[in-house]
Amino acid sequence: MMRQKTLFIVPYLLWIVLFVLAPLILIFYQSLYNINGQFTLDNYTTYLTSGVYLKMTFNSVWYAFLITLVTLVISYPTAYVLNRLHNKQFWLLLVILPTWINLLLKTYAFIGLFSRTGSINQFLRFVGLGSHQLLFTDASFMFVAAYIEIPFMVLPIFNSLAEINPSLINASKDLGASQWQTFTKVIWPLSMPGVKAGIQAVFIPSLSLFMITRLIGGNRVITLGTAIEEHFLTTQNWGMGSTIGVVLIIAMFIVMFATGEAKQKGGHTR
Amino acid sequence: MKKLLTIIVGILALCLLLVCGEYALNHRGNTGGHRVLTIYNWGDYIDPALISKFEKRTGYKVDYETFDSNESMLTKLRQGGTNYDLVIPSEYTVQRMKKEGLVARLDHQKLPNLRYIDRQFLNRSFDRGNEYSVPYFWGTLGIIYNDQKINAGAVQHWEQLWSPRLKNNVMLIDSARDVFAIALITQHQSVNTKDFTKLKRAQGHLKALTPNVKAIVADEMKMYMEQDEAAIGVTYSGDAREMMDVNHHLHYVVPSEGSNIWFDNMVIPKRAQNKAAAYAFINFMLAPANAAQNARYVGYATPNWAAKKRLSKKITSNQAFYPPQKTMRHLHTYHDLPLKTLGEYNDLFLEFKMFAK
């Protein structure tokens, strides 16, 4: 019996070691070498002392935070309404459908919509509002980023809402709670795991968005992803690129930890 | 239990497959024997009809692969998996390949058609005596503008880009060397300076440009300029040509005070398997009729004087693509800079991009 159990772990372990741990170790290892191939901690010193990288990190976190917030504000009501519809699986499918299309294609489609001669400006001119500069603005960048991330937020929230036992909600109503009270005291806390999973799924990729920053943001929004791309493709400073990669991994752990611990607290005190 | 074994075997098989796949990809070039010529070129950078013509005439089979940046090409060449017989890098990359000993010295005896190359494009600083490289196409960095929005007179010189009248109208190419070249030229400095204080000063000048900068983009600039999204773009002559073919309101200017001139060159890697075929191909591409055909297809400026004669006057008299001697004298190639300096260019550029808010 024991032997079988350990055997069951083997494929899982192999997968984790080969495709998760090994790449992480390689990135960390690479980050300890400078551009001349010497073993050093210089990359980390540069990162921590250069105002440029710190400001970029701050920018990335700030934008990722905003994107996550916007996505959450849109996704929660969406998931909530979806749950109450007939044929909800069908409507959910419609929300998920855009993820089947390649990210770059969707981004290029937005260029067509937002450009000076694009559909939105044509409409604005038609209703007499004149044409506006839509591309290369913070607003358009946030819009496209949120659009792309929304399915990843809707899905976990939808699932956690669907898992709530309807009798709990009925009980709350029977005991005289108002709609609002039922929502804040029962539904919201019980859907928290979904919200947290959604935040993790959106915040972390948003930290390192880089194609959208150039295509829609016109490089007027700079995130850590831009710097990594540059170090690997242009300056060939793989060490520095890896260092920023390590920073992103640490940021990821912080987010996981923060959202993970809060969940336990919530579960126990309420 | 059986299921489990299947999974383990599955993962191991996947790994094995990946290793085999990599091996197969890297060693494809070796299997064809002596009748195969493996070429590594930029995407969409040759008239495909010429390849068939070459195959028919010489009996070699051409294995044609493409890359999209000098750096990615270099990485692949360094790894040495595939043995390319002919590669077409830009001039600063030729310099680096020379330094790293990746290219073979050319035997000019075997290249009789080299005489068709205009003398002003031979013996350039990146490869004195053309010991390793033969120019393929050349071009410049310049300004493309839309005549519906901008007067020609307003964009003849780099310094004019700083004019307050162009607020939020200029698109820059997302390349540290090119953007710094603009600032360095306006400050009468070398585009290859290694002096950090000069770079810092150039960056200061660039920061003053930020109110005019609409976006810093790469290939997408073509689309944006064609769709009238911006009035002015700083770009390469080859890209400019493509944009002008689509939108007839666009025009290209090479500022007479100076700019970058770049060359893409044919080189034979040291590890080439089929040097005889590579020499045959270089000669073939240098033959005036073929060079002219290629230039018509690709649309870049040819360094081949005999081919240029065969092109229509409309093309060769266009000063934007074949600038007058006065301007030619002020055009500089980029040198291959030490990685440290290259890092400084890029870090300062990144800072400039962040400032562009």
TrEMBL record, chain A:
SUPFAM superfamilies named among the record's database cross-references: MetI-like
Alphabetized UniProt keyword annotations: Cell membrane, Membrane, Transmembrane, Transmembrane helix, Transport
GO BP terms, alphabetized: transmembrane transport
Name of protein: Spermidine putrescine ABC superfamily ATP binding cassette transporter, permease protein
Stretches assigned to the ABC transmembrane type-1 domain: 57-259
Residue intervals passing through the bilayer: 12-32, 61-83, 90-114, 134-158, 197-217, 237-260
Membrane topology term: Multi-pass membrane protein
Organism: Limosilactobacillus panis DSM 6035
Subcellular location: Cell membrane
UniProt-listed InterPro entries: MetI-like, MetI-like_sf
Homology family: Belongs to the binding-protein-dependent transport system permease family. CysTW subfamily.
GO CC terms, sorted: plasma membrane
CDD domains linked: TM_PBP2
UniProtKB/TrEMBL annotation, chain B:
Residues reported to bind spermidine: 92
Pfam families: SBP_bac_8 (PF13416)
Cellular component terms (Gene Ontology): periplasmic space
Subcellular location(s) per record: Periplasm
SUPFAM superfamilies reported in the protein's UniProt record: Periplasmic binding protein-like II (SSF53850)
Protein's GO biological process: polyamine transport
Designated name of the protein: Extracellular solute-binding protein family 1
Naturally occurring in which organism (per UniProt): Limosilactobacillus panis DSM 6035
